[in-house]
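Marked as duplicate of an earlier ticket. Keeping the data here for the record.
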Amino acid sequence: MRIQFWLQGGLALFAVSVSAAPALAEDLTFKLLNSTSVAVTEFYLSPTNVNDWEENLLGDDTLSAGTSTSVTVADGRKTCTYDIKSVFKDGDVVEDRGVNLCELGSYTLHQ
């Protein structure tokens, strides 16, 4: 699985490569917008058929309040529907289930 994550505003590129497998589907790319007043410290995507949260896409980075970034998921899966978990700097956790990211093209975090 290969997941790439770019943060705007001069922050570093975050990329993860796990077990080199050929891509079976097109990469899923969407815009992630943090419309809250609090930074996001953790952001997870897991296909709806996976029972555990996959890795934190932010790693050691954060997504500041009022900013956006582009997220590319290149995991070889043919799914568009993901469960999403966001953890905020103030300790709040927001989960959203069954989100079709292919149809939306963007995902906005609300607190």
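See parent ticket for discussion. Residues 2-109 form a domain with the Immunoglobulin-like fold (CATH 2.60.40.2890).
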